[in-house]
Design goal:
The chain is an alpha/beta fold. It folds into three domains: 8-90, Orthogonal Bundle (Arc Repressor Mutant, subunit A); 94-162 and 266-294, D-Maltodextrin-Binding Protein, domain 2 (3-Layer(aba) Sandwich), CATH 3.40.190; 163-263, D-Maltodextrin-Binding Protein, domain 2 (3-Layer(aba) Sandwich), CATH 3.40.190. Helices cover 43% and strands 21% of the residues. The protein has twelve helices and twelve strands. It has helices at residues 8-20, 23-30, 34-48, 64-92, 101-108, 112-118, 170-175, 198-205, 210-213, 224-232, 246-250, 280-294, and strands spanning 53-56, 59-62, 94-99, 123-128, 142-147, 154-160, 163-167, 188-192, 217-221, 237-240, 262-263, 267-273. The strands form three sheets. The chain has a five-stranded mixed beta sheet. The chain has a five-stranded mixed beta sheet with strand order 9-8-10-7-11. A two-stranded antiparallel ribbon has the order 1-2. Strand 1 (53-56) and strand 2 form a beta hairpin. Helix 1 (8-20) packs across helix 2 (23-30). It is rod-shaped, with a radius of gyration of 31 Å. GO terms for molecular function: DNA-binding transcription factor activity; sequence-specific DNA binding.
Length: 295
């Protein structure tokens, strides 16, 4: 059912004028001119079909009908104001971030307790997705993206220079006598679909030829989480970055048998839209994230 209501600006101008008893003081509150306030009130009077004020020289008097109308609409406007203020405060204390499932689980997750303890008033929402989100339709404030760092619509800050490194479990290294790169010939290579860098690694750091490579056994996973877990369980060697295995390295579940690293063209960037100012919570979370990346 269609509901006919007067212009909201006119209602606001009328309500402020009654409270202050003056178009001039109402204009100060609303940050517009007294003439603009008067015009909004005239629009409302025209819409209602009767005068709301008796205009006298240097004096504004509310009509009986005007005061009756004011008594009905003022509580409604106050309710709208209070609800909007509450919702705005909720948004100011809320931050939403998008990042890959692996980064959310292996890097951000273990650190969140630190942020929550420092900022218990901020509500953090995690969007863990391997696909880029739409900042506007998905209501996302910040994102950690793995790309070339070029997008004219985004504010972009380098968070982590990505590179591939080799990891395995301590037992796997001992059992396969993994003390030189060419001994990879006798291992199982754990391949992650989104990180297809084994051929580049073998080209750069080994003398293993194409025929020999065809004999190396391989395990394929479509997620870095599964690849890392397989390496942790002693099922092979994995190429990934140090961000995703910090907990496994800390607890001795994985080791890095070689100091070699393979630089990549894409890196991790902390981004947000240029046309979408960050609220206080998002600014606080952004500063904390960059601090964590640099730690």
């Amino acid at each position: 059912m269609h509901k006919t209501i007067p212009p909201l600006r006119a209602l606001v101008a009328f309500e402020a004028s009654v409270r202050h008893g003056s178009f001039k003081q109402a204009a100060v509150e609303l940050n517009i001119t007294p003439g603009a306030v008067s015009q909004q009130v005239i629009k409302l009077e025209s819409w209602l079909g009767y005068p709301l004020f008796i205009r006298q020289v240097r004096k504004l008097k509310v009509t009986e009908q005007g005061m009756s109308y004011f008594s009905l609409i003022a509580p409604a406007l106050e309710q709208i104001s209070a609800a909007s203020k509450t919702y705005r405060q909720q948004q100011e204390n809320r931050v939403a971030i998008s990042l890959t499932q692996a980064l959310a689980s292996k890097w951000l997750g273990p650190r969140l307790a630190d942020f929550v303890s420092k900022h218990p008033d901020i509500e953090v929402h995690i969007n863990a997705s391997n696909s880029p989100v739409d900042f506007y339709t998905d209501q996302i404030d910040l994102a950690i993206r793995h790309f070339n760092g070029i997008d004219p619509q985004l504010e972009i800050q380098l968070a982590f220079e990505d590179e591939m490194r080799l990891f395995c479990s301590p037992d796997y290294q001992r059992q396969h006598k993994l003390f030189s790169m060419d001994t990879l010939l006798h291992t199982t290579l754990i391949v992650t679909t989104l990180q297809p860098f084994w051929e580049q690694w073998l080209d750069r750091f080994t003398t293993i030829n194409a025929e020999q490579r065809n004999r190396i056994s391989r395990l394929h996973f479509d997620q870095a989480l599964l690849s890392i877990d397989a390496a942790r369980r002693g099922q092979g060697v994995v190429l990934t970055n140090a961000l995703l295995v910090q907990e496994e390295l800390k607890h001795g579940e994985l080791i890095e048998p070689f100091a070699n690293s393979l630089p990549l063209e894409k890196h991790y960037y902390l981004v947000h839209p240029k046309q979408q100012p960050l609220n206080t919570a998002a600014c606080t979370f952004k500063a904390w994230l960059l601090e964590q990346f640099s730690a």
